[in-house]
Amino acid sequence: MKSTLDSSPHYGFIQLGCLGYIIAIALILGGGQGAYTALKNREPLRMTFKDYHEQRPSAEWVSLSEAQLNLTNSAYVTARTSDKVKEVYIAVEAMGNREDKPAWVLLESDNQELIDLMNQTSAKMNALKSPAEMTPELVQSLFPARQISGLVQFGMESDSKTRDKLAKLDLALEKEFVIIKEGDEPNLMSSLMMLVGGLVVGIFALRERKKEPPPLPQAPNLPPM
Q: What residue intervals traverse the membrane (predicted)?
């Protein structure tokens, strides 16, 4: 005789195994880091990129002026289903810099205007038939000025796989380079909601884990044939 388990969601966390705990830990860590960032960075740190590069402060939310991008020291990410560029990583330098040094800061951006600029500049460079065709205007277009605003990635936001891939590319980067996600800002409310949600999920998972599931019905004792 076959018996069926109770399909009630009352024992959902037991049925999910470790998934409930993984979700809780991810929410707690992500929400905790977001709340820490928001409380520590009530306003963005505003300074020139040159000063930021020299002082290397610990602020996570920054707004840097007098900066330029170096399109010759950049990489891009394409969509899985096409060759369309969906994100770019570009070295950031102080305005007017022409020194051939490894970059400390990479700007991560999905800004379509910036992606289009990279594509257009790359097409112009590929169309050159000789170095003599390199005009001053084209050289200048390789180093566009840009206000850098966003969050410095760290902790859970810092994807080690992405960093390893970037480090293996033919880019001039310092060993301990940092990535600034353009346009990101701290969000205390959403971070607190994640944190509370993780705590609730974790507490519920622990409570359900301690409960014993109902015993399976015993097969009846049938008389011998």
A: 12-39, 188-206
